[in-house]
Design brief:
The complex is a heterodimer of chains A (261) and B (257). By secondary structure, chain A is mainly alpha-helical. In chain A, 83% of the residues lie in helices and 0% in strands. Chain A has 2 domains: 40 residues; 213 residues, Orthogonal Bundle (MetI-like fold). Chain A has 10 helices and no strands. The radius of gyration of chain A is 23 Å and the shape is flat. Chain A starts with a helix and ends in an 8-residue tail after the last helix. With 257 residues, chain B is α/β, with parallel strands linked by helices. Chain B folds into 2 domains: 180 residues, P-loop containing nucleotide triphosphate hydrolases (Rossmann fold); 65 residues, no CATH class. Helices cover 33% and strands 26% of the residues of chain B. Chain B contains 7 helices and 11 strands. In chain B, strand 10 and strand 11 form a beta hairpin. Classes of the chains: A mainly alpha (261), B alpha/beta (257). The interface between A and B is medium-sized, with 22 and 27 residues.
Chain lengths: 261, 257
């Protein structure tokens, strides 16, 4: 009986923990509804119509498009992390090397890499690889620079003390640098996720027949605005879902950052 | 209490011969430690005391094998010290605990790095945490501990590696008086039980007299050992209340001035 009560209390607490989300969704829907009422043109349908269309479209291919977009973003972020984190730690721990690499990074960082899309389409074709490469390339910089700066900021006393336990370089890279930089890496990943969705949209607007970017542009071309907004809702949900995943990951692996004193 | 010159005794556990350490600071060369000679017998509790900036921490890093001296030689257990030794552990002033690992994970780290199997490591860690009365803190993170508890964790992490030489850099300097006294007692009981050699760096005169069977007095500019004090009554907590203890403190103070 008492267990049941506890369980009930727990689920209630959980529901209340989501309260800010309900409020946020409600506020956004009201704002949308107000603006669409003011505009009063088919270009901006009211939220009700868009949501109904969204539900209807899920079975009519929207889910597949969303999956393709999720796959492209997920793989791109994974690549950017796999390359960006080790290089970031390497440059953050090797001053001399960094002094040669840093100018190269700062010179190429501001270049709008989206202009390479035509080149990439020629080199890598019209499939997923050109889009994944473009997104990876752009967010790689964000991961690299953040990781490098975080690695530089690791307390040298910790390195000395873990070395004294007998740690070799690999132990130091994992137990000290990687784990110590993880909160900053996840912050960079959140920023990168926003960037990658924006880049994905542009990349999918050209030379593909799959993905949410294509779906939205295609609906716009057909002047089917409620379908277009169904696509926009899909993109919002995709991003939201991925942010939640990053948050969960951080709660699990960076518990030390969120301690109650 | 008497005062003896350094003996170059080859039966000693730690033997340091004409050691020089120079730091490169910008374009300047800074002499951190100059012409240091010292000998520590097996199982001895020795203390290095001196004003801040006299190079006592530098000397400790050299003994740990993490810092290579420009000149001179260090022998530990008869072997020339070329790199870090598995039977030597070092505890730094601010404990050096990883904030992202729990107490348990911090203590087990050294064992895992050395390739001890997970089961053996866990067992050893559990028994050490119990010995040091911090087993109830196993799942906490360092940020959730008091200074004294952190120091206990740092000691546990060292002891888990079963060292023969334990080096400590001002281990109790940031603790309040009562915590410091209880940890001094703890360290002395560990030393008696485990029969390990301990080198403790401090700038606290009372701590040096209470704990150091042999006290190395260092001077600043140049950082070198100016005196070695034999202090046979050290290592017993009750020593703190005795007249000889106060005499010893006064004597040590006179050497430092």
């Amino acid at each position: 009986m008492r267990n049941l009560q506890k369980l009930l209390q727990k689920s209630i607490n959980k529901i209340f923990a989501w309260q800010p989300y309900y409020i946020a969704v409600a506020v956004l829907l009201i704002l949308w509804w107000l603006v669409s009422g003011l505009v009063d043109k088919p270009v901006l349908p009211p939220p009700g119509a868009a949501l109904l269309e969204f539900v209807a479209q899920i079975q009519m291919g929207l889910a597949t498009h969303a999956w393709v977009s999720f796959y492209r973003i997920g793989v791109s972020l994974l690549f950017a992390l796999l390359v960006g984190i080790p290089l970031g730690i390497l440059f953050g721990t090797h001053k001399k090397l960094d002094s040669y690499i840093a100018p190269m990074i700062y010179l190429t960082y501001p270049i709008p890499k989206i202009v390479f899309l035509p080149v990439l389409l020629i080199l890598l074709g019209y499939g997923d690889s050109s889009k994944i490469f473009l997104i990876s390339l752009i967010v790689f910089y964000q991961i690299l620079v953040t990781t490098r700066d975080a690695a530089r900021g690791i307390d040298p006393g910790l390195i000395m003390s873990v070395k004294s336990l007998g740690a070799g370089n690999w132990h130091l890279y994992f137990h000290v640098y990687f784990l110590g930089c993880l909160p900053e890496i996840l912050t960079a990943l959140r920023v990168a996720l926003g960037t990658s969705i924006a880049v994905l949209f542009i990349a999918e607007a050209y030379a593909t027949q799959e993905g949410l970017g294509y779906y939205i542009m295609d609906s716009m071309g057909r002047f089917n605005y409620s379908r277009m907004f169904a696509g926009i809702i899909g993109m919002g949900m995709l991003g939201f879902f991925m942010y939640i995943m990053i948050d969960l990951f951080e709660k699990m692996f960076c518990r030390w950052k969120h301690l109650e004193k | 209490m008497d005062f003896t010159k350094n003996k170059n005794n080859n039966s000693s556990f730690v033997h340091v011969k004409s050691l020089n350490v120079v730091y490169q600071q910008k374009d300047e060369q800074v002499e951190a430690v100059m012409d240091v000679n010292l000998d520590i017998n097996p199982g001895e509790f020795s203390v290095i005391i001196g004003p801040s900036g006299c190079g006592k921490s530098t000397l400790l890093y050299v003994l740990s094998g993490l810092l290579k001296p420009q000149e001179g030689e260090v022998y530990i257990d008869g072997q020339l010290l070329l790199s870090r030794r598995n039977d030597t552990t070092l505890i730094l002033q601010d404990y050096g605990l990883l904030p992202w690992k729990t107490v348990e994970q911090n203590v087990v780290l050294g064992l895992l790095i050395r390739g001890v199997s997970k089961n053996d490591a866990r067992q050893r860690v559990n028994s050490i945490l119990t010995d040091l009365a911090i087993d109830n803190l196993a799942k906490r993170f360092p940020a959730q501990l008091s200074g004294g508890q952190r120091q206990r964790v740092a000691i546990a992490r060292s002891l888990a590696l079963q060292p023969r030489l334990l080096l400590m850099d001002e281990p109790f300097s940031s603790l309040d008086a009562l915590t410091r006294e209880s940890l001094q007692g703890l360290l002395l009981s560990i030393w008696e039980k485990a029969k390990i050699s301990i080198v403790l760096v401090t700038h606290n005169i009372e701590e040096a007299v209470l704990m150091g069977q042999k006290i190395f007095v260092m001077s600043k500019n140049p950082g070198t050992i100016i005196n070695v004090v034999d202090n046979p009554l050290a290592g017993d907590i009750s020593y703190r209340g005795k007249k000889e203890f106060y005499d010893g403190c006064a004597f040590l103070r006179s050497l430092l001035q």
